[in-house]
Amino acid sequence: MAIEDDKAIKAASDTIVEETELGYQVFNAPDESVLHQTDTDRIPRFDVTQEMLDESGEDPESWLMFSKNYEAHRYTPCDTITKENVADLELEYEMEVGANSSMEGSPLIVPGDPPIMYQTNGPSHVKAIDAREGEVLWSYTFAAPDDAVLCCDDNNRGVAVWNDKIYMTSLDSGVQALDRYTGEEVWYASTADHKEGYSATWAPIVWNGMLFTGSAGGEFGVRGFHCAFDAETGEELWRLNNCPEEEYVGDSIKQSGGTNWMTATFDPERELLYYNVGNPSPDFNGTVRPGPNRNTCSTLCVDPHSGEIQWVHQESAHDIWDYDSAHQRMIIRDLEIDHLDLKQDVVYNGGKTSWTYTMDPDTGKLLVRGQPMTQQVNMMTMVPHVEEERDYVMLPGLLGGHDWQPPAYSPETGLCYHKTLNTPHEIYWRNEEYNPGEKFWGGIVDVEPDEELIPDEYNGHISAIVAVDPATGKVAWRDWIDSDRYLWGGTMTTATGLLFAGTQNGNMIAYNGENGERLWEFDVSDKAVSGDPVSWYDPGTEKQYVAIQVGGSGFVGRGPRGDRLVVFSLGE
């Protein structure tokens, strides 16, 4: 069937998301959600059990959550594609997904005969695809309200799967549960009022029948939270406001920011939840929010049963540079930290600050702060607050360093792999009145400062893929990537020591994970490759597959939107 005959794809394609003075706004969305079914009987009927989720990291035939396993390694045990034969990797198929939207997600793969892919993109659109043939079995577009306002385009970065359902966050700050066999709606829950600036674009996670999801809207002066739902019924189980009211002065807590706008990480051994917390609000004018603005720009550790905070590690106190702590956390088991004479589990992440952080999972104690992954010039300098001198250029800019791009870990090399930005931005502060649903930045950003304002120390490289040793924080290797676009999307490692990544220049690359040597490149598109690579082995074809979504988004330097999914393969 041609995609133009698919009613759900047409509804997503007809939905317009444009940047306005209020932010990105949704126009011409369907009045009601649209489902189109094509060949649902092809989907094998069995529950995705908790045991399958627990063992997903060791299963080469599946990719059952956003970053493959609960520890968020983005590592596949598939071993068909090796350093020796990766040059033979070929395009298996490509398909148009039809929405011409932001393409920043990670598809899921449920094993079976055939394997089923659940692929999402903006605006709140998901498909079930026969991953062997590249054929759409059903598609669904959520009816996003026309008055939804978004910071950074209509992204949807993936779904969660559990039993007979998949779960997708929606642009109106909701969670939609769907029957994974038919695409039919099961339940919907709103997490907050989108008219105040709340939204949702990340993949949730599910553990033992509980679904965990966060909040977005820090650029609109919302109060960030994280919450848990009963995955079967949609009943809210608990809600945690990320920032403690007693730490804030006056009414500043009401617009404190501190949202959690990426997927959480779960430690099944400790039964603890770890997640990132974003910037305080307003972003750049700290005078209206005195104090350290806890727990913004932080890692939070939370009891998943009660929602109680166990510990906090803050990366940028009283932040006035928009240095969110942005990407999903990673858990690394039995890491040997020789200089501290330790061998233990750790929680790890990279920051917009461009440093990496290796933390104790039980206490949050900082064990290692890594070397800068990119340049740091004028970093964390006070923004001048006098009329004749109220701006300056900083590096990293407000996107980092390390933004949302999900990193990968390789047990073979012991390294973590990051997509980073090395872009100077000029920021201005200004006083702004808070109005619900309107931007509340407390400043202006110029992402292309005048040449004479850029620091002499700037090396001119806009981005890099960087390998870091989490035990020492040292940069093992770095591949500078130049472009007029920013480098988005995630990375993926394999059991054979490979690293896969797409670039903003439209290339798909396989690296030797040990030293950064490029072993294979494929010219995918003239558009940015902003998706996250995933991989699986299909015993029915005896091939290993690698899939990635192609296209940028309308937001700052991400390149033109796209609507393609490409799948590569190599047989035994």
Features:
572 residues; mainly beta; five-stranded antiparallel β-sheet; five-stranded mixed β-sheet; 2 helices
Approximate strand percentage = 35-45%
The percent range for helix content is under 10%
How does the overall form come out from the CA principal axes?
globular
Outline the low-pLDDT stretches.
none
For the sheet with most strands, the description reads: 5 strands, antiparallel
How are the strands of the biggest sheet laid out side by side? 3-9-8-7-6
Number of helices: 2
- Number of beta strands: 40
Q: Report the mean per-residue pLDDT as an integer.
A: 94
Distance between the termini: 31 Å
Would you tell me the structural class of the helices and strands? mainly beta
How large is the radius of gyration? 22 Å
